[in-house]
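Margin note: ligand = adenosine-5'-triphosphate.
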Amino acid sequence: MTAAAAAPALAFKGVTHGYDDGRPVVRALDLTLAPGEVVCLLGPSGCGKTTTLRLAAGLERPWTGTVRIGGATVADAGAAPPVHVPPERRRVGFLFQDFALFPHLTVLNNVLFGLKGRPRKAAQARARAVLADVGMADHARAWPHQLSGGQQQRVALARALAPEPALLLLDEPFSGLDTRLRRTVREQTLRVLQETGVAALMVTHDPEEAMFMSDRIALMQAGRIVQIDSPMQLHHRPRSPFAVRFFSEVNECAGVIRNGALDTPLGRFDAPELADGTPARVLARPEALIPTLSGDTGFAARVVSVRPLGHETILLLGLTAPGRPESEALPLTARVPGRPRCDPGDIIALAVEADECFVFPDAGPDPEDAGGTG
Ligand SMILES: Nc1ncnc2c1ncn2[C@@H]1O[C@H](COP(=O)(O)OP(=O)(O)OP(=O)(O)O)[C@@H](O)[C@H]1O
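Resulting structure:
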């Protein structure tokens, strides 16, 4: 492998950026994508995802730090004069939510648009090959308005990939599609990315989409990456309450660490690395609470409401403690597969799945730095 081939597809180092009000919205960001890697930037609205993508694209000039693409420095705020390679010379492809194909050009000519400057025959061959890659070879002569939303999105993907970019940048590329179509189109997109081996940085605020698409997820909060891990690691080893709460509603019980564990109404959770006396809380995902037929789990809960969602059901429960009035029941949310056999008013036994529960110290001013145990 040559040194250039081994270079990261994208490397941000110490990148800070903001807009006119002088407030940084991306803060000291370090991020590296391996060749062929798909990384999703995931986080709440306004956390800096799109700004990060625009910095990679060259649409923004960073205040500090460097950006490298495929081993080449495309931005260096500290150089004199600062380095800034414009978007069209960065070897990046774009796929945005409003993937707007040119309505006055056929599918083939839309794809050829990105291949200007190449010999005509080679460009035609490349455009047809990439249309075949996305399963649109038979539509080369069609006009955009004759295509479904999903087909248009595949043509936009072909147009972005045609010039063989070193890096593909995707900003909420599926959010304009309805739910069912979105699933199909993102599967097709992922397959094409894997087959072409292009590295991709994708912005989404949809945790399920990030879990599905990513080799790694970069979870962002207030301009920083607070955790970057594989979807599985992020699920099983969340490093902050934020990383748990972002993926689903959670049940939370506070307490104080005693003898290396946290005693809560949901049971005792080991937390050996937390000092005695530390205020802490357990975060239990809704799927941690499992209604069980064996009545002897130690936890009895009153079913408050049953909300069937089709393939799963949300149960709102009130956890009762022996000798305590029901008015003091702890409200809990459980998520169970299928349709459980219980109705509002029933008392059910609950088992608690410890793998889906996480203990964190009750943090000071900066909760994102808090460590946790699973
Ligand atoms: N052109 C701009 N001028 C001024 N402020 C901006 C500009 N673009 C973004 N911002 C601000 O920067 C912050 C980060 O915005 P950004 O679009 O990067 O976040 P995001 O995570 O992509 O959000 P969303 O999911 O809502 O698109 C926000 O506070 C936003 O208001």
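The CA atoms of residues 26 and 273 lie 32 Å apart.
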